[in-house]
Write a structure and sequence with these properties.
The protein is an alpha+beta fold. Strands 8, 9, 10, 11, 12, 13, 14 and 15 form an 8-stranded mixed beta sheet that branches. Helix 4 packs antiparallel against helix 5 and helix 6 packs antiparallel against helix 7.
Length: about 350
C-alpha cells in the first residue's frame, strides 16, 4: 500500500470522526431543544389554565407537570418568574403555585368592600393542620379555610385537621382529614375552645402545621399567625416575621409553606408576589374609583348620595396615598390604616348601594 492510499485512509478516518462528533452534538442539542420546548409549552399551558381559573372562577385540574421534573421548578420573586432549568415564564397574575405532579387550581378572593382582589391557589395533594391556641381565633380560621379549595369528588385533595398537644385530630371524617366543607361543619361551634401547643414531631412531612395564637413567641417552626380581631397582625414563617392584612397574605404563606430553594423560602416569596401585584392593582383601582366617585358626586341630584360619593372619593384618595409607598405592607401601622380606610370606604359604598345610587361591586 503506497503512501497516497494510507493518507486517504487517515483522512477518511478524520473526516468520519468529525461527522460522528457533529451528529452526536447535533442530536444532543436537538434533544435538549426539544426538552426545553416541551417545558416552555407546559409552563405556558399552566399559566393559561391558572389565568382562566382567575378570570372565570371555575376550578381546574392540571396534570401536565408529570411530564417534566416538577421538583426542579423554582420561583424568583424579584422577576415574578417561574423557572425550570433554562426555561422561564413570568407570572402576570397572583398565582400561588406549589409544584407537584398534579395540581388542583382554585380561585380565592379578598373582599375589601370597595374592590375585590382575586388570586389563584395551585396545590398538589395537601394536608393542613391547625393548632388553635386562642379561643377567639376560630372565626379567623374559618375565613382562611373558606378561601381554600373544596376538593370533594376530585382526585387531588386539600384536607384539614386539628392538632392538640401530642394528638392529631383527624377523625372528623371517617378517620381521616376533612375536606373543606366538612371541616368547616366540624369546627362550627368551637368558639372559645383552645388546644395545647402541637408537638411537631407527631407530624410527618406531608402535613403543613399552622399555629394560631395570641402570641407566637417561642414558636419557630411551620407557620404561626398571631390572631387579631381586626384582621391585621403578624404572621411568622420559620420564625421570620411579616405583616398580614387580609386572608390572601396568609394563604400565600400556607401554599408556599417552608419549602426553600436558592431564591429563598417559598411561602415568603409568594407573600412578596401577592403584595407586589396587590399594591399595583389596588392603587390603580383606588385612583380610578376615586375619579368615578367624584364625577358621580358632581352629577347627583339626591343630596345624600352626592355627599356619600364625595366621602367615598376622599377615602379612596387616602388609600391611594398609602399604596403609593411600595413597602407599606411591611409596616404594621400602615397596614392597620389601610385596613381601616378600606372598611370605611366599603361601608360608604354599601350605603350608596342601599340607597339605589350605585351597583354592588
Amino acid at each position: 500500500m503506497d503512501t497516497y492510499q494510507i493518507f486517504k485512509i487517515i483522512l477518511g478516518l478524520i473526516v468520519s470522526a468529525f461527522i460522528v462528533i457533529f451528529i452526536v452534538i447535533f442530536i444532543s442539542n436537538y434533544g435538549g431543544l426539544q426538552t426545553d420546548t416541551q417545558k416552555a409549552k407546559i409552563l405556558s399551558l399552566f399559566d393559561k389554565t391558572a389565568t382562566n381559573v382567575l378570570l372565570y372562577g371555575n376550578d381546574a385540574n392540571f396534570t401536565e407537570f408529570k411530564r417534566m421534573d416538577y421538583s426542579a421548578i423554582t420561583f424568583d420573586p424579584i422577576s415574578e418568574t417561574i423557572i425550570t432549568g433554562s426555561v422561564s415564564r413570568k407570572l402576570t397574575e397572583p398565582i400561588f403555585l406549589y409544584p407537584g405532579k398534579t395540581l388542583y387550581i382554585h380561585r380565592g378572593e379578598a373582599d375589601l368592600g370597595w374592590w375585590k382582589f382575586y388570586f389563584v391557589e395551585a396545590l398538589p395533594d395537601t394536608s393542613i393542620i391547625f393548632n388553635v391556641m386562642d379561643g377567639d381565633a376560630w372565626e379567623q380560621v374559618i375565613d382562611i379555610v373558606t378561601e381554600m379549595p373544596s376538593t370533594t369528588g376530585e382526585t387531588i385533595k386539600t384536607r384539614f385537621g386539628l392538632c392538640d398537644g401530642s394528638t392529631l385530630q383527624e377523625d372528623f371524617c371517617n378517620d381521616e382529614l376533612c375536606e373543606r366543607d366538612y371541616f368547616l361543619q366540624a369546627i362550627y361551634g368551637n368558639e372559645g375552645m383552645t388546644f395545647s401547643r402541637c408537638r411537631e414531631t407527631i407530624l410527618g412531612e406531608k402535613y403543613r402545621l399552622v399555629f394560631v395564637s395570641d402570641s407566637c413567641t417561642g414558636i419557630n417552626e411551620g407557620i404561626c399567625i398571631e390572631s387579631s380581631p381586626d384582621g391585621v397582625g403578624y404572621i411568622y414563617i420559620d420564625g421570620n416575621q411579616h405583616v398580614y392584612k387580609d386572608v390572601a397574605d396568609i394563604i400565600a404563606m400556607i401554599v408556599g409553606y417552608i419549602k426553600s430553594d436558592h431564591f429563598g423560602v417559598y411561602g415568603e416569596n409568594l407573600y412578596t408576589l401577592k403584595n407586589e401585584i396587590f399594591r399595583e392593582r389596588a392603587l390603580f383601582a383606588s385612583q380610578v374609583l376615586s375619579s368615578r366617585a367624584k364625577i358621580l358626586s358632581s352629577e347627583m341630584t339626591i343630596n345624600q348620595c352626592k355627599q356619600l360619593f364625595e366621602t367615598l372619593g376622599e377615602k379612596l384618595d387616602e388609600i391611594s396615598n398609602i399604596l403609593s409607598d411600595e413597602d407599606y405592607y411591611k409596616d404594621i401601622d400602615s397596614a392597620i390604616q389601610f385596613k381601616q380606610l378600606s372598611e370605611e370606604a366599603g361601608r360608604t359604598h354599601r350605603e350608596i348601594v342601599n340607597m339605589g345610587c350605585d351597583y354592588p361591586i
